[in-house]
Design goal:
The protein is α/β, with parallel strands linked by helices. It folds into 2 domains: 4-31 and 78-290, 3-Layer(aba) Sandwich (Rossmann fold); 36-74, no CATH class. Helix content is 42%, strand content 23%. The protein has helices at 4-23, 28-32, 57-63, 98-115, 139-151, 161-171, 190-199, 239-262, 277-290; strands spanning 37-45, 67-74, 78-84, 119-125, 129-136, 177-182, 201-208, 220-224, 231-235, 268-271. The strands form 3 sheets. It has a 6-stranded mixed beta sheet, sandwiched between helices. The chain has a two-stranded antiparallel ribbon with strand order 1-2. A two-stranded antiparallel ribbon has the order 8-9. A hairpin with a 6-residue loop joins strand 8 (220-224) and strand 9. It is elongated and about 90 Å long. The two termini are 45 Å apart.
Length: 291
């Protein structure tokens, strides 16, 4: 049985994200993502303005009047949440941990998906695969996904994006919309990502905290690498140290963005303590405009 506090947390996320989906992102998710194709629906009599290329010649000849074939978009999609739960997500300095932000973002995407009758699945990973939840529909299923994101205690500590993509490629044979939610503290994942992108619509969501990009001037502090456990004492009063820290963080982000741009993949950037709705909505609008 889940602790009462966790149940309250799941309920708060459900209420908050459902509101965002209904009031802010209504229609944008549907417009941004195509279905699997066009499905034949019916034949009807030709009307002014119909595309003449859809005329069914056989039916038109039998009826003595022009008739057209009508198609509809086959809407149902499979949405996979490929979620990084490495120990670096247990960090946050803006009254929010990165892992809590990840849960809210994924909940919003999942509720958007089931609102459009799409299936939602989950692959949670660290330096290994931690949890697989097969794609299904329905609100109860989405609540289970949220529960796993909040309650799961990962066995691993690091981040292995390559292993995550390999698992995705083995288990998801059908084309899916894949939201990769991670802080991207990993290297050497470009080849598995290229393979995954050939089959799936991969959308990276980069999660970060302000203090990962810049250090405050607070004197001597001890820093710990959440994934390796290594510690280091640094003097944050040093301007040179703060500048080098920021430059190194910026270089890492630019390296990631350059790799994704080369693959023509758009990234959604979200940060703890800030609203993630506008970055999501902006991405959906951009997708819709391209259609």
């Amino acid at each position: 049985m889940l602790p009462a506090e966790l149940l309250k947390k799941i309920r708060r996320i459900e209420i908050r994200t459902s509101h965002m989906v209904n009031d802010v992102l209504a229609g944008q998710y549907h417009s941004a993502f195509r279905g699997r194709g066009m499905e034949f629906e019916e034949v009807r009599e030709y009307r002014i303005g119909d595309d003449i290329r859809t005329i069914d010649r056989n039916v038109s000849a039998r009826c003595g009047k022009p008739h057209v074939k009508v198609f509809r978009e086959e809407r149902e999609l499979t949405v996979m949440l490929l979620v990084d739960l490495s120990r670096s997500h247990q960090f946050g300095t803006q009254n929010q941990l990165k892992r809590d932000l990840v849960a809210e973002v994924c909940a919003t995407l999942a509720f958007s998906a089931i609102r459009n009758n799409d299936k939602v699945g989950l692959i949670a990973f660290t330096d290994r695969i931690e949890k697989f939840v097969a794609p299904r529909k329905g609100q109860k299923h989405v609540l289970r996904v949220i529960r796993e994101l909040l309650y799961l205690e990962p066995a691993g500590t690091g981040t292995d994006l390559s292993a995550a993509f390999d698992y995705l490629n083995r288990t998801s044979r059908r084309r899916s919309v894949v939201f990769l939610v991670s802080d991207f503290q990993a290297e050497g994942y470009d080849r598995p990502l290229r393979i995954a992108r050939r089959r799936h619509d991969v959308i990276p969501i980069a999660v970060s905290d302000r203090r990962e990009m810049e250090l405050p001037n607070v004197g001597l502090i001890e820093l710990e690498d959440a994934e390796t456990g290594e510690t280091l004492v640094v003097d944050t009063s040093s301007k040179a140290l703060r500048r080098n820290y920021a430059l190194r963080a910026l270089a890492g982000a630019e390296q990631r963005d350059t790799l994704l741009r080369r693959m023509k993949i758009d990234t959604i950037d979200v940060r703890t303590g800030e609203s993630f709705i506008e970055p999501l909505a902006r991405f959906f609008r951009k997708r819709e405009a391209r259609r």
